C-alpha cells in the first residue's frame, strides 16, 4: 500500500472490529500499527444498514475507500444459529452482496472478508485446511450461516476471474476478547460462560455449562486476530482463503474453557454440566500451516492470559457492554 489508502472496516463496532481499532491505535511497530499513509474508518450499523444497497452505495460515495475489511455480519453462537437459520443465510448474503458489488463499482484495490471454521464440512478428515471449504455439507446446526459465508469465497473467485478484483477472505476459529457479545442465550461459548459465571458468583447460584463439555475448539484472542487481519490486508496476495488460528496442539475442550473462566473469576461455587443442551459439532480442528509458512514468527497470546484480560475487561465494563 504505497500511496494514500482509505481503509473502510465494516462491523467496526463489533468484537473483531474493536480489536482491529485497538491494534491500529495502540501498536507502535510498523508491522501492525497504523502507517502514515493510511486512513482507517470504522463503521457501525449507525452509519448505514449494509443489507440495503442504497446505504452501502452512500457509504462508498462518502468515504471512497481504496481498501475494505469486511467484518459486518449477523453473528451468534450455536444456540442462535440453530434458531435463526434463514436470517443467518439471508442477512449475511445481503450484506456480502452489497459490499462486494460496491467495492467492484468503486474500484477498491483489495477486500478482505471474514469466513469462519464453522462453515467447514461436517463429515471430513482432520485437520481441515483451506482447500476443503466446499467439500461437503456443513454441520446441520448452522447451515444457514455456513452457506452464506461459503458464498463469499465463491464470489471472490468470480469477481477475480471476470473483473480482476483482488477480493480475498480469512477463516478465523472461535474468537473472543473485549467488546464481545455477552448475551446469555445467543452469544458464543466463551462470552456466554463469562457472563454466567459472573452471575453465579454474584448470586451464589450454580455455574451451569451447556452440553457435555467434551467438544473441542481452537480459540483465537481478538487482538491476535486483529494483527493477522492487518497483515492479511497488507501482505496476503491470494484469492483463496487463509485460516487464522492457533495450532492443532492448542485445541481445548469446552470444559477447559469453563475451567479457565472459573479460575480467572476466582469462582468457588457449585459447577455443573447440562447435558440436555446441544453439543453442536464435536470438533472442527483446523490446520494453520499456511499461515505459519507466511508469518512463522507470529506469537499468539497464551490462552490463560487472553482469558484473564477478557474477563477483566468484562468485569470493568459490565454496566455498558452488550448483554
Ligand atoms: P459482532 O461482535 O456481533 O459484530 C458485528 C458487527 O457487524 C457490528 O459492528 C455490527 O454493528 C455490524 N452489523 C451487523 N449487522 C449489520 C447491518 N445490517 N448493517 C451494518 N452493520 C451491521 O461480530 P464479530 O464477532 O466481531 O464478527 C466479525 C466477523 O468475524 C463476522 O464476519 C463473523 O462472521 C466473523 N467470525 C466471528 C467469530 C466469533 O467467534 N465471534 C468466529 C469466526 C468468524 P452494530 O454494532 O452497530 O450492531
Ligand atoms: P460453535 O463453536 O460454532 O459451535 O459455537 P459456540 O461458541 O456457541 O460453542 C458451542 C459449544 O459450547 C457447544 O459445545 C455448546 O454445548 C458449548 N456451550 C457450553 N455453554 C455454552 C453457552 O453458554 N453458550 C454457547 N453458545 N455454547 C455453550
TrEMBL record:
Which pathway, per its entry?
Nucleotide-sugar biosynthesis; GDP-L-fucose biosynthesis via de novo pathway; GDP-L-fucose from GDP-alpha-D-mannose: step 2/2
Task: Name it.
Answer: GDP-L-fucose synthase
InterPro entries the record matches: Epimerase_deHydtase (IPR001509), GDP_fucose/colitose_synth (IPR028614), NAD(P)-bd_dom_sf (IPR036291)
Task: Name the SUPFAM superfamilies on file.
Answer: NAD(P)-binding Rossmann-fold domains
GO MF, one term, reads: isomerase activity
HAMAP family associated with the record: GDP_fucose_synth
Which Gene Ontology BP terms does the record give? 'de novo' GDP-L-fucose biosynthetic process
Organism (species): Thamnidium elegans
Q: Which family does it belong to?
A: Belongs to the NAD(P)-dependent epimerase/dehydratase family. Fucose synthase subfamily.
Could you tell me the superkingdom of the organism this chain comes from? Eukaryota
Task: Return the EC number.
Answer: 1.1.1.271
Q: Where is the NAD-dependent epimerase/dehydratase domain?
A: 7-245
Q: Name one Pfam family in it.
A: Epimerase
Looking at the UniProt entry, the stretches that span the membrane are none
Q: Which CDD domains match?
A: GDP_FS_SDR_e
Query: Which keywords fit this entry according to its UniProt record?
Result: Isomerase, NADP, Oxidoreductase
Amino acid at each position: 500500500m504505497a500511496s494514500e489508502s482509505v481503509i473502510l472496516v465494516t462491523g467496526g463496532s463489533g468484537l473483531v472490529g474493536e480489536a482491529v481499532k485497538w491494534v491500529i491505535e495502540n501498536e507502535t511497530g510498523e508491522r501492525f500499527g497504523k502507517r502514515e499513509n493510511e486512513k482507517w474508518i470504522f463503521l457501525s450499523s449507525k452509519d448505514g444498514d449494509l443489507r440495503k444497497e442504497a446505504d452501502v452505495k452512500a457509504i462508498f460515495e462518502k468515504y471512497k475507500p481504496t481498501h475494505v475489511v469486511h467484518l459486518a455480519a449477523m453473528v451468534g453462537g450455536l444456540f442462535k444459529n440453530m434458531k435463526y437459520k434463514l436470517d443467518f443465510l439471508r442477512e449475511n448474503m445481503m450484506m456480502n452482496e452489497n459490499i462486494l458489488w460496491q467495492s467492484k463499482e468503486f474500484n477498491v484495490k483489495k477486500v478482505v472478508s471474514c469466513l469462519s471454521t464453522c462453515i467447514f464440512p461436517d463429515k471430513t478428515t482432520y485437520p481441515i485446511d483451506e482447500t476443503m471449504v466446499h467439500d461437503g455439507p456443513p454441520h446441520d446446526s448452522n447451515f444457514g450461516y455456513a452457506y452464506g459465508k461459503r458464498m463469499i469465497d465463491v464470489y471472490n473467485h468470480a469477481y477475480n476471474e471476470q473483473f480482476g478484483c483482488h477480493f480475498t477472505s480469512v477463516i478465523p476459529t472461535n474468537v473472543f476478547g473485549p467488546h464481545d457479545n455477552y448475551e446469555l442465550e445467543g452469544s458464543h461459548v466463551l462470552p456466554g460462560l463469562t457472563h454466567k459465571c459472573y452471575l453465579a458468583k454474584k448470586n451464589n447460584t450454580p455455574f451451569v455449562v451447556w452440553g457435555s463439555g467434551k467438544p473441542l475448539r481452537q480459540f483465537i484472542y481478538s487482538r491476535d486476530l486483529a494483527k493477522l487481519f492487518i497483515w492479511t490486508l497488507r501482505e496476503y496476495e491470494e484469492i483463496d482463503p487463509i485460516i487464522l488460528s492457533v495450532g492443532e496442539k492448542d485445541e481445548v475442550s469446552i470444559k477447559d474453557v469453563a475451567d479457565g473462566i472459573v479460575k480467572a473469576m476466582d469462582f468457588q461455587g457449585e459447577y455443573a454440566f447440562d447435558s440436555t443442551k446441544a453439543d453442536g459439532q464435536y470438533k472442527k480442528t483446523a490446520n494453520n500451516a499456511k499461515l505459519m509458512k507466511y508469518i512463522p514468527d507470529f506469537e499468539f497470546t497464551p490462552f490463560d492470559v487472553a482469558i484473564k484480560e477478557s474477563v477483566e475487561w468484562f468485569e470493568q465494563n459490565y454496566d455498558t457492554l452488550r448483554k
